[in-house]
Amino acid sequence: MMASHEHEAKAEPPPSSSSSSSSNTAEAKTETRPSVETDMSTNSTTIPSTSWLTPKMLLAMFCIMSLINYLDRGAIASNGVNGSRGTCTNGTCSSGTGIQGDFNLSNFEDGVLSSTFMVGLLVASPIFASLAKSVNPFRLIGVGLSIWTIAALGCGFSFNFWSIAVCRMLVGVGEASFISLAAPFIDDSAPPAQKTRWLAIFYMCIPAGYAIGYVYGGVVGNHFGWRCAFWVEAALMLPFAILGFTLKPLQMKGMAPGGSTKVLAADTVVPGVQDVEASNSKDESVSSSAEVGDKISHEPSKSKSGTPAISDQFSQFFQDMKELLLDKIFVVTVLGYIAYNFVIGAYSYWGPKAGYSIYHMTNADMMFGGITVVCGILGTLAGGFALDFMTNSLSNAFKLLSLTTLVGGAFCFGAFLFRSQYGFLALFAIGELLVFATQGPVNYVCLHCVKPSLRPLSMAMSTVAIHIFGDVPSSPLVGVLQDRINNWRTTALILSTIFFPAAAIWFVGIFMHSVDRYNEDSEPQSQLQPQPQSQPQPLPEEKTGETPLPTPSVEEEKTRGKPFPEIPLPTPSVEEKSGETPPPPKPQ
Question: For the region Disordered, what residue ranges are annotated (predicted)?
Answer without folding.
Answer: 1-47, 277-308, 521-588
